[in-house]
C-alpha cells in the first residue's frame, strides 16, 4: 500500500521537547513532513486548526473512526482522543516524502501492530529527557497545563519512560540542535539522503 522510505514514529513523554526538535529539524530540512494529528482537546493559545492539530468534536472524531479514516486512535491522559488520519500519511509516503508521525506511547504500539497489514515499514524513535527532574522543569516552565493536567502527564511520563526499550532508537534531548541532527541522520539513512 505504501512505498518510499520508512515512517518515523516519534514518541516521548510530554514536555520532553518533541515539537521543538521537529521545528529545529524542519528549519534545516523543510522537505520533512510531520503528520498532523486529530484531537478532541481544546486548542492551546496560538494553535491553528490543520497546522498544529485537526481539532474535532467528539462526534466528528467518532464518525471518522467509524469510517476507518484513522491509522490509529487513543484516549490520552484520560482527557482527550487523538488519532492519525491515514490518507495524508499515504499521500506523502507514496511520493517518498520523509515522514514523521509524532505520537504517544499507546499510538506507537498500535502503529507497530498495524504496520504489517498495511505494508508500512516503521522506525520507532524515543525522545528521552536528560533526567526526570529536567522533564518536570520543562513541563512546568512551558505553562500550558493546569496543575492537575501536569500531575497526570508526569504520571503518564513514568509509564512512557519505562517503555523506552520498545523503540528502535533513543535520542536524548539534552541539546535541541544535536537531537534534530540525530533525527535527520536516521531519516537520511532510511530515505537514502545525504546526512
Short description:
The chain has helices at residues 18-28, 58-66, 86-93, 105-118, 132-142, 147-162, 176-191; strands at residues 7-11, 33-34, 38-39, 54-55, 70-76, 80-85, 99-102, 122-128, 169-172. The chain has 195 residues and is α/β, with parallel strands linked by helices.
The CATH superfamily is known as P-loop containing nucleotide triphosphate hydrolases
Topology as a string of helices (H) and strands (E): EHEEEHEEHEHEHHEH
Question: In order across it, which strands form the biggest sheet?
Answer: 2-7-1-8-9
The figure for the number of domains is: 1
* Beta-strand percent range: 15-25%
Low-confidence runs: none
Distance between the termini: 27 Å
Q: What can be said about the biggest beta sheet? A: 5 strands, parallel
List keywords for this structure.
195 residues; alpha/beta; Rossmann fold; 4-stranded mixed sheet; 44% helix; 20% strand
Characterize the structure shown:
This protein is α/β, with parallel strands linked by helices and 195 residues long. It has one domain (7-191): P-loop containing nucleotide triphosphate hydrolases (Rossmann fold). The protein is built from seven helices and nine strands. The protein has a five-stranded parallel beta sheet, with helices on both faces. A four-stranded mixed beta sheet has the order 4-3-6-5.
Amino acid at each position: 500500500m505504501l512505498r518510499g522510505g520508512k515512517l518515523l514514529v516519534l514518541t516521548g513523554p510530554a514536555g520532553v521537547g518533541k515539537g521543538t526538535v521537529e521545528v529545529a529539524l524542519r528549519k534545516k530540512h523543510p522537505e520533512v513532513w510531520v503528520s498532523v494529528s486529530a484531537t478532541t482537546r481544546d486548542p492551546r493559545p496560538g494553535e491553528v486548526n490543520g497546522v498544529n492539530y485537526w481539532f474535532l468534536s467528539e462526534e466528528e472524531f467518532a464518525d471518522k473512526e467509524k469510517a476507518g479514516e484513522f491509522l490509529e486512535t487513543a484516549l490520552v491522559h484520560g482527557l482527550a482522543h487523538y488519532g492519525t488520519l491515514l490518507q495524508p500519511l499515504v499521500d506523502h509516503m507514496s511520493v517518498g516524502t520523509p515522514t514523521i508521525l509524532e505520537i504517544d506511547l499507546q499510538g506507537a504500539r498500535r502503529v507497530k501492530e498495524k504496520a504489517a497489514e498495511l505494508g508500512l515499514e516503521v522506525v520507532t524513535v524515543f525522545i528521552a529527557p536528560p533526567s526526570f527532574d529536567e522533564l518536570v522543569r520543562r513541563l512546568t516552565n512551558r505553562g500550558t497545563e493546569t496543575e492537575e493536567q501536569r500531575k497526570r502527564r508526569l504520571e503518564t511520563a513514568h509509564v512512557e519512560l519505562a517503555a523506552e526499550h520498545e523503540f528502535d532508537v533513543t535520542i536524548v534531548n539534552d541539546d535541541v540542535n544535536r537531537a534534530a541532527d540525530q533525527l535527520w541522520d536516521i531519516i537520511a539513512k532510511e530515505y537514502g539522503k545525504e546526512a
